[in-house]
Amino acid sequence: MQSTKMRRKVAPVVNDGDSSDKLDQLLLSSAICNGEDLGPFVRKAFASGKPETVLHHLRHFSKSKESEIEEVCKAHYQDFIMAVDDLRSLLSDVDSLKSSLSHSNVLLQSVAGPLLASLDGFVEARNVSQNVGLALESIQTCVRLVELCSRSNFHLSGNNFYMALKCVDAIEREFLEKTPSSTIRKMLEKQIPAIRSYIERRISKEFGDWLVEIRIVSRNLGQLAIGQASAARQREEELRIKQRQAEEQSRLSLRDCVYALEEEDDDDDGGGRVGDEGKDKYSNSGSSMFGFDLTALYRAYHIHQTLGFEDRFKKYYFENRKLQLTSDFQVSSMTPFLESHQTFFAQIAGFFIVEDRILRTGGGLISKIEVENLWETAVSKMCSVLEDQFSRMQTANHLLLIKDYVSLLGVTLRRYGYPVDALLDVLSKHRDKYHELLLSDCRKLIGEALAADKFEQMLMKKEYEYSMNVLSFQLQTSDITPAFPYIAPFSSTVPDCCRIVRSFIEDSVSFMSYGGQLDFYDVVKKYLDRLLNEVLDGALLKLINSSVHGVSQGMQVAANMAVLERACDFFFLHAAQLSGIPLRMAERGRRQFPLKIARDAAEEMLSGLLKAKVDGFMTLTENVNWMADEPPQNGNEYVNEVIIYLETLVSTAQQILPVQVLNRVLQDVLSHISETIVGLLLADSVKRFNVNAVMGIDGDIRLLESFADNQVHLFSDADANQLKSALAESRQLINLLLSNHPESFLNPVIRERSYNTLDYRKVVTISEKLRDPSDRLFGSFGGRGLKQNPKKKSLDALIKRLKDVS
């Protein structure tokens, strides 16, 4: 290699004179020295038609190299001779080594023969061992495979499908490709899909059974949940009643209050949610006590997840539940909605309680959006059903029962986060219809109660009767419990009507409560006003105008009206209490007596009956001697009869009639008597009368005024004076006729002070009847030739002046 390298570094010497040949020779020499391809040079030579030149250059190059080789050989000849000598010396050593190797080979052959035979036996044994090991490994694989198959069969027989699927997955993953037996492999390839298909069918059947069962469970669950809401509402009502009682005691300043601690059972708290005991992702036992078991559902969902069919199962579940909900919306036309509404709403409530539980614990089985869509569909359907059913109902109690249950449904599902405003809006929209039906029912009941009234004071033999008919409506006039038997100043129609009105208030508040409107007192008050003003007042007015005959019945009706006036205060306070309004606000907004028309009619009717009775006595005025020689000593006969009757009337009426009513009635009667007396003097039947007759009438009026003064033990002084003022017209007329200066009537000041009730036309007519010269009208006059009495002259002047005015 060193000589080769050296040769590559030697540049050939060219002594040719021709420069191109030298260049070609130099390039060819360089290419040969560098071991390059000479093909281009050869092609070039043949292309130029000068191959001899290339041969010439090659010969020249070979000659130049022969001399170089010769010089190199000369340089290494001595070393070659020495190497040849060394090789010759080694020949003897090689021969001896050859003989030694031959001898060693013979020895080795003799020794290695048995060893090779043993080695062949060892190799054969090792091959057998390897085959046995492979067989054992295959057997172990088969044993493990059989164990997994057996375990899978065991889980299948025990309906433990999840573990069976795990075993099948392990067989498919670990043994299907490694199974040495093609028969077993084919069996596995056939049975694994069959097992999965079998599990899917079984779990689908269980899920189908669960879908059937959950409908019954949902109905029971909804009824239970709504029942818990109803119990919670009942406890709230009881607490509210206790609070009202405490407020009433505080208002009445009762200090002897009894305080007690009340223990509440936390386990029975209606504020919880049915079936919230389990909070795990796949809780199976949280609601077993309610029959609310989701094991089958979650098992089916989990199995389908394991099979890789999660999305398909979600869709299948949602579609089936949606169909169930649609089926729940069906309202039977064969059963009245009043009988089926609880089942209808409980079924829907239970459905969404179950869905809420699945949403929270189902691991994504159903989404919140899907539940909200189902709820919107349900709300829309329930609203349409309520609209349709409410439009058909003609009984207020039926509508109230359904409203209460729907409000309980709203309370129940609001706890689970479902919006129920649309349902409450439907209830509010039918508020007017409900109250119209309620007013119609109360009109019928009040009519029946009034028709059954016997116009007799109510007899109460026991304290509970007094509490039920008097205290419960705050009709008592004293806090002292009376002795029994107790005769009330009112008839049985008063507590009957009070019970009807109280029931109306409670039903109205019940309808308005829990309907989404917190402050509904004004609404209740509006309908209560209608009940009192339109229904009760109208019924009483009809009773007064058609069914009252006789003074005793009229007096009883008037007494009833006075008691009902106190009852009306109770009605508005009771409505305020039930509506949660402070009593002071209700008292501050109190209006006038709503039964004023019936009260006034009752008093007018009683006054009319009394006037008719008095008119019977006033017919005795026929016996009055209008031209008496002297005035009667003890009044005329008619006035004595009237006073006896009035005294008897007062002694009876003061037992049942309030003082104010009695005062107004007596005023009206005395005013009527006064008008009758004036009318008697105006009547054509009385052609003339003398001063003695006028003095007799004056005595009659004094007796009536004395009767009014004697009532001071019943009335105040002001009321007694009002009674006397009822006789003002007759008194002023008699005073004018007996006056020494009757012309003073023409003085406006005196007339306003002393004769303000007199009509000047009546004065003219009556005064003319005293103008009889032959009867000595104004006292003891002399004969015709005597000077005219100044009093008569004044009266004649008055008559003339009044006629001029007229």
From TrEMBL:
<dbReference type="Pfam" id="PF04091">
    <property type="entry name" value="Sec15_C"/>
</dbReference>
<dbReference type="InterPro" id="IPR048359">
    <property type="entry name" value="EXOC6_Sec15_N"/>
</dbReference>
<dbReference type="InterPro" id="IPR046361">
    <property type="entry name" value="EXOC6/Sec15_C"/>
</dbReference>
<keyword id="KW-0813">Transport</keyword>
<dbReference type="InterPro" id="IPR007225">
    <property type="entry name" value="EXOC6/Sec15"/>
</dbReference>
<dbReference type="GO" id="GO:0006893">
    <property type="term" value="P:Golgi to plasma membrane transport"/>
</dbReference>
<comment type="similarity">
    <text>Belongs to the SEC15 family.</text>
</comment>
<dbReference type="GO" id="GO:0090522">
    <property type="term" value="P:vesicle tethering involved in exocytosis"/>
</dbReference>
<dbReference type="GO" id="GO:0009860">
    <property type="term" value="P:pollen tube growth"/>
</dbReference>
<keyword id="KW-0963">Cytoplasm</keyword>
<dbReference type="Pfam" id="PF20651">
    <property type="entry name" value="EXOC6_Sec15_N"/>
</dbReference>
<feature type="domain" description="Exocyst complex subunit EXOC6/Sec15 C-terminal">
    <location>
        <begin position="423"/>
        <end position="769"/>
    </location>
</feature>
<dbReference type="GO" id="GO:0060321">
    <property type="term" value="P:acceptance of pollen"/>
</dbReference>
<dbReference type="GO" id="GO:0006886">
    <property type="term" value="P:intracellular protein transport"/>
</dbReference>
<protein>
    <recommendedName>
        <fullName>Exocyst complex component</fullName>
    </recommendedName>
</protein>
<dbReference type="GO" id="GO:0000145">
    <property type="term" value="C:exocyst"/>
</dbReference>
<dbReference type="GO" id="GO:0005829">
    <property type="term" value="C:cytosol"/>
</dbReference>
<keyword id="KW-0268">Exocytosis</keyword>
<feature type="domain" description="Exocyst complex component EXOC6/Sec15 N-terminal">
    <location>
        <begin position="57"/>
        <end position="226"/>
    </location>
</feature>
<dbReference type="GO" id="GO:0016020">
    <property type="term" value="C:membrane"/>
</dbReference>
<dbReference type="GO" id="GO:0009846">
    <property type="term" value="P:pollen germination"/>
</dbReference>
<comment type="function">
    <text>Component of the exocyst complex involved in the docking of exocytic vesicles with fusion sites on the plasma membrane during regulated or polarized secretion. Involved in polarized cell growth and organ morphogenesis. During cytokinesis, involved in cell plate initiation, cell plate maturation and formation of new primary cell wall.</text>
</comment>
<dbReference type="InterPro" id="IPR042044">
    <property type="entry name" value="EXOC6PINT-1/Sec15/Tip20_C_dom2"/>
</dbReference>
<dbReference type="InterPro" id="IPR042045">
    <property type="entry name" value="EXOC6/Sec15_C_dom1"/>
</dbReference>
